[in-house]
Amino acid sequence: MTSFSWADVCARRLARHGLAAPLAGTPADVAAAVGGTHAQVLSAAELSIGLRLDGVTRAEVRHALWTERSLVKTFGPRGTVHLLRTCDLPMWTGALAAVPHSSPMPAAVRMTEGQADQVIEAIEHAVTSLPDAELTVDELSDAVVAACGSWAGDPVMEAFRGKWPRWRQVLPLAGMRGAVCFGRNRGRRTTYTSPRRWLPDLAPAAGALPDVLRHHLHAFGPSTPERFANWLAAPPAWARQVFEDSGSDLARVEVEGEVAWVSKGDTGVPDDPPRGLRLLPYFDTYAYAVGNDRHRLYPGVAAERAAGNFQVLLVDGVVGGLWHPRRSGRRIRITVEPFGTLTKARRAELDAQVDRVGTILEGSPELTIGEVAVGGHA
Predict the structure, then answer these.
(1) Could you tell me how many helices (H) and strands (E) the chain has, helices first?
(2) What sign does the dihedral 239-86-135-206 (CA atoms) show?
(3) What is the C-alpha separation between 337 and 344, in angstroms, rounded?
(4) Residue 280 to residue 319: CA distance in whole angstroms
(5) Cα 363 to Cα 357: distance, rounded to the nearest angstrom
(6) CATH number corresponding to 101-197
């Protein structure tokens, strides 16, 4: 059985995530390589993709999303907002629809399976009724309630301010099934539209789970069924069955005494050890989708100081600090809090990263070394 050290794992992941050296290809290719780019904060997704390509700015990521449409903003793994490569939508929607779904809502709020299907059908009809429909959540709510009945609009879901209507609990599920995706913002308001504007012949692919597992293992392997379950917000027993069903395509390996899996034949390790300093934005997939690898990825003080959704300073493949940008016009004030002393060489790397962040975000960066006082992102 092939054995990996944690340094081997970091070196593999850094290379495959475009964090050891830039990836070749397009913004869409980056999203595919890392198993989807988390886009709850779209500016963070733009930075996440830009950091993995040579010379790309946020404008090119936006062009890929809204003009070229090689990227689509939708609900991906865990039902969270992602940028996915458009041509991969059949795979993603087919696989995510196969993940067992259980509502975390209290019984009084929860919908039946039949009600959920009815709402998803109403969402899909609303965003496809006009060729270029881009509906705010209030407009979409009106359409769903008109189609399903007043029960769908009951304000029963606890929200940031007040309560949301009942139907909204299945909005992520509708996205994972390919019924809806995000459109351009209307001012500051989010809009929803049909993914068939990106891919007219979209149909969820049957038997897509092995393909999604391969994507996971490429970006995060060696991995385990428990980490795969965490990545998809799926039941661990179900994930173990997916691994078992894919047994002939997998290879069992060891990571510092722990049994894990990679795709068959994919046991290579880069010649160079994990090196480099990177500024990762909120929810960056390298640092975010870690499951029970967290104790290794967040060593020492990072385990406590970076607990939550922070923008992290990555040093040789592990979290070694925090950072935070504050924008005013073109000026971007970047505060970096290393958890250790920066050597002269490390400071030069940091200066280069700050310049790169400024280029991607199309601004003029100013670096301050000091405490990051802001909390984690919700």
Answers:
(1) 15, 16
(2) negative
(3) 16
(4) 10
(5) 8
(6) 3.30.420
Place of tokens 């793994």: 77
Please state, in angstroms and rounded to a whole number, the distance separating the CA atoms of residues 247 and 226.
16
Contact residues for 362 (Cβ-Cβ < 8 A; gap 6+): 57, 58, 59, 330
Structure pTM?
Answer: 0.95
What are the residue boundaries of the structural domains of the chain, listed by start?
Answer: 101-197, 277-369
At 215-261, the pLDDT tens digits run: 999 999 999 999 999 999 999 999 999 999 999 999 999 999 999 99
Give the H/E segment covering residue 32: helix 27-33
Task: Name the residue with tokens 């070749």.
Answer: 24
Q: Are 49 and 84 in contact (CB under 8 A)?
A: no
Segments of the chain assigned E as strands: 2-4, 37-38, 71-75, 81-85, 135-136, 155-158, 163-165, 181-186, 189-193, 250-255, 258-263, 277-280, 312-315, 318-328, 331-338, 364-369
Residue among 4, 74, 69, 7 at smallest CA distance from 37:
74
Q: Which of 56, 28, 48 is nearest to 359 (CA)?
A: 56
What b-and-e string marks burial along 117-135, b requiring 16 or more CB atoms within 10 Å of the CB? ebbbebbbebbbeeeebbb
